[in-house]
Design goal:
Elements lengths: L35 E3 L1 H9 L1 H8 L9 H16 L9 H6 L1 H11 L3 H7 L5 H18 L9 E9 L4 E12 L5 E7 L9 H19 L5 E6 L4 E5 L3 H24 L46
Parallel strand pairs: 1-3, 4-5
Antiparallel strand pairs: 2-3, 3-4, 5-6
Helix pairs in contact: 1-2, 3-5, 3-7, 8-9
Length: 309
């Protein structure tokens, strides 16, 4: 079983604290004094474990990239680059040929990624990349890129709510039909959620739909999660009630974050996901002691360290 990961999660240099790629894109509305910023990943962090949110967004503790994150980033880069080619050239063979260049590009930015492969069974790059091919093959079984012309890829979106909370994130793919209908697509290298967990998995997509609705005045017609781990697609058609409920939820999450920031109380919440946490040595649930809070305490506005499933 692998930790939940999304394909647009940036791979961090080994041992380096997370840095928000959104910083280079964010253009706040003039005259709006925002109370803070939230991405779907940071919101999910807080819901999963408030202390994890603190470690990532306030303490900015270093976290090594996992093999799953690196694999997801490589596959995501291939899927993004594939649409630069003419439609008829978007074949499984061309996709597989893009794997090695995508890996080399990542390694140029962080030579330490070889250490990540060692953590994944000590594989060399050639054999490790061969394992990435199965994800690409599954994608071609699910979608036909020769019939797709995405309107946007790896698109940065943001919107300020009436509560003055800034929501932002990166969307893997936006498809726009001739009649204007919008489909939001996100790739995951993990497996699709089991019964009862679909709503949690779809929170990220509702978050994106809310941002698009508030920023562009158009409600997406379809939200689509493409799970390459087991070759399944999960679809959902949002409506206004869904997105208003999502808006209330993210606003409540931010209020809880603000309350924890003011009180300094960041509750650790033990769960099955603790096995993938990089900070167990500092967690009270595992006998650790968190570091002293920095002064002043200001939550960072990190964008998605979300997931490469």
């Amino acid at each position: 079983m692998t930790p939940p990961t999304s394909l647009h999660e940036p791979v961090r240099p080994v041992g380096v604290a997370p840095v928000s790629p959104a910083e280079a894109h964010s253009t706040l509305v003039d005259g709006v004094d925002v109370v803070g910023a939230l991405s779907p990943s940071r919101a999910s962090d807080f819901l999963t474990c408030p202390l994890l949110y603190r470690f990532r967004s306030i303490d900015r503790l270093p976290e090594p990239s996992s093999p799953a994150q690196v694999r997801g980033t490589v596959v995501h880069k291939v899927l993004e680059t594939l649409f630069d080619l003419p439609a008829l050239e978007r074949t499984p063979e061309r996709a597989e040929a893009l794997l090695a260049p995508a890996w080399e590009q990542l390694c140029e930015g962080d030579p330490g990624l070889a250490e990540v492969l060692e953590a994944d069974g000590g594989q060399d790059a050639v054999s490790w990349l061969a394992g990435c091919r199965q994800y690409l093959r599954r994608w071609f079984d699910l979608e036909d890129p020769t019939r797709l012309e995405p309107a946007e890829r790896e698109s940065y979106v943001e919107a300020v709510l009436d509560s003055r909370l800034l929501l932002r994130g990166f969307i893997d793919r936006l498809d726009v039909a001739p009649d204007g209908r919008i489909r939001v697509v996100d790739y995951k290298t993990g497996r699709s959620p089991g019964p009862g967990f679909e709503a949690k998995a779809m929170f990220q997509m509702r978050f994106y739909a809310l941002v698009l609705w508030r920023a562009r005045g158009v409600m997406p017609t379809l939200l689509q999660l493409v799970y390459l781990g087991n070759g399944e697609i999960v679809r959902y058609e949002p409506d206004e009630d869904d997105l208003l409920a999502t808006e209330r939820k993210v606003t409540a999450i931010w209020r809880a974050i603000a309350s924890a920031t003011e009180s300094g109380q960041w509750q650790a919440k033990k769960s099955k996901l603790c096995g993938w946490c990089s900070h167990q040595a500092l967690c009270p649930e595992f006998g650790g002691t968190p570091p002293l809070l920095p002064t002043p305490v200001v939550p960072s506005v990190d964008e998605d360290a979300d997931a490469l499933d």
